[in-house]
Each structure stands twice: as structure tokens, then as C-alpha cells.
Specification:
With 185 residues, the chain is mostly helical. It contains eleven helices and no strands. The protein is elongated.
Length: 185
């Protein structure tokens, strides 16, 4: 198997094999875009979607819990142990979380009427980091307070957007989750 097929997957393997892929930096850019998707890593507001529990972590936890609840047959006996909650409502909520994976707002997920998304689209921007009004934008108050996106903005100014994206991808692969920000709020 050619090295490029292993690294890039079959989508780019033939093209890379023919070109030799010796152009400096091309491997990182293609690997980044294939792993992340075209600009799918960062939401319009600047929060890294791959750090959000709703993308995969929460649906997986809910699916695992569903599996245990069914295997232990809680529905058959939980009513004898407690009347503190409605088990059917619990299962309905658990099912919602298990099937709730979000694609990220740049891929159609997120809140449908988000003012930040509407603003970026209106200005033709992929996200707020490229907006000249970022520092004074009041639409981003929650994200600035909760997700510390001003720190991201500063880092982007230091190392560039593409390098910052690589750092975020690495954080995702290492298991970073926005829960770290949310618990500190």
C-alpha cells in the first residue's frame, strides 16, 4: 500500500501518488481538511465544534446508558424501587440525547436562528475570527466568557489560523472537551 493511501485515505491517494506529494506542507493541509472537513472544525462563533460534547461524546454516553438500562431490564423493576421520576419520560429523554449528535453550525447543526451565524453569513465570513469587529462584538459575549474565544483569537494572531486549527485538531484527538470550560463557569 502506498504511503499516501495510508495517510490520506483513498480519496486523495491516487492524485497524491501521481503527483508525488512532495510539495512542502501539502500533506498537512490535506490531512487536516480530510480529518476535519472543510472548515467544519470551528463554528461561526469561534467555538471548536469538535470540542463539543454534543458532537459525539454525549450521544455515545446516552447510547451506552440505554444499552445498560435495557440489559439490566430496569423497566421491569425500577417502579418497585422508586417513584421519584417517570421512567418512560427518562427513556424518551435518553433516546433524544442518544440521537442528538450535532454536525456543527457550519454544516447545518446548531441553533437555527443564531444571530452570530446570520451575521457571519451576511458578511460572507466563515467564522468570527476573520471579522474586524471581533474584539468589540457583543454578540459573542457568551462565547467569550464561557469558551474563552478571545484566547483563541490571540493565539491565531500569534501563529496563524491554519496552525491554530492543527492545534485544535490535536486537542480533539487527545480528548479535550468543552466541559473543561463549562465546569469552571
Amino acid at each position: 500500500m502506498p504511503k499516501h493511501k495510508r495517510v490520506f485515505g483513498t480519496k486523495y491517494a491516487n492524485v497524491l501518488y501521481r503527483l508525488g506529494a512532495e510539495i512542502e506542507g501539502i500533506e498537512d493541509r490535506i490531512l487536516l481538511s480530510e480529518d476535519v472537513g472543510d472548515d467544519g472544525l470551528v463554528g461561526f462563533c469561534g467555538v471548536c465544534c469538535s470540542h463539543c460534547g454534543m458532537q459525539a461524546r454525549i450521544p455515545k454516553m446516552a447510547t451506552d446508558l440505554q444499552r445498560f438500562v435495557e440489559a439490566y431490564r430496569y423497566g421491569e423493576w425500577i417502579g418497585y424501587v422508586t417513584q421519584d421520576f417517570d421512567f418512560r419520560t427518562f427513556l424518551k429523554g435518553l433516546g433524544w440525547f442518544a440521537n442528538s449528535g450535532c454536525n456543527g453550525c457550519s454544516k447545518g447543526g446548531g441553533m437555527p436562528n443564531c444571530e452570530v451565524r446570520n451575521c457571519c453569513k451576511g458578511k460572507g465570513l466563515g467564522n468570527c475570527y476573520s471579522c474586524e469587529d471581533f474584539s468589540k462584538c457583543t454578540k459573542l459575549a457568551y462565547q467569550k466568557e464561557t469558551y474563552k474565544i478571545e484566547e483563541n483569537y490571540t493565539r491565531i494572531k500569534q501563529i496563524g489560523y491554519e496552525q491554530w486549527l492543527k492545534e485544535q485538531l490535536l486537542k480533539s484527538k487527545e480528548g479535550f472537551d468543552n466541559i473543561h470550560f463549562l465546569e469552571k463557569k
